[in-house]
Amino acid sequence: MKKIVWMSSFILSLLFFTLISLLVTSIIVLFSDSNVLSFTQSNGAHMWIGLEVSGSWQGVAQTLNEHGFDSVLWLGLVQLLPFILINIILIRLFLLYRRGSFFAIENIQCFKWLGGVLLAQFALVVCYPSLLITLLNLATGSDIGRVVAIQDTDIIGLVMGLIIYVIGWIMGQAQQLQKEQELVI
């Protein structure tokens, strides 16, 4: 039990660090003139913090940039939303683990929410760029074009979301069976 509490505390510290870095990145994008803050030292060390649009949305980002739109603002921040939600759900789950709660209803809900967010992320990856381009075409009267791309990492996210959701569902069924068994005895 002590190992689980210790490991949960360690993972929680990493999750909080990740959540803070995601929020700082969002603030930089929203309130800075640049999407990236860069720091260079005299010894040649270079560090940057910021946001780039990556994955299957790179083609859409390039198209938006070519037409004068800020792709990081239109796509990058939206790309961060599922990651922020996933971090919050995992923080909740590992707080429960640290308290010694492993198969409670709250844990099951965390698994279902986590699977649901991963499934929603896939839907977002598939639908949002096309919807955004269509709305921008209607609003500006231009023809930006359409770019739809799905990468293998998106499909892996879909499969992982389904697996995690089913795990939560099975845990719920197991808990229901345990309650019914306790009533029989």
From TrEMBL:
Q: Which Pfam families match?
A: DUF2975
Q: Per the record's keyword annotation, is Transmembrane included, yes or no?
A: yes
List UniProt keywords, sorted A-Z: Membrane, Transmembrane, Transmembrane helix
The answer, when asked if Repressor is one of the entry's keywords, is no
Tell me where the transmembrane regions lie. 12-31, 72-95, 116-135, 155-172
- In Swiss-Prot or TrEMBL terms, this protein is called DUF2975 domain-containing protein
Species of origin reads Pseudoalteromonas shioyasakiensis
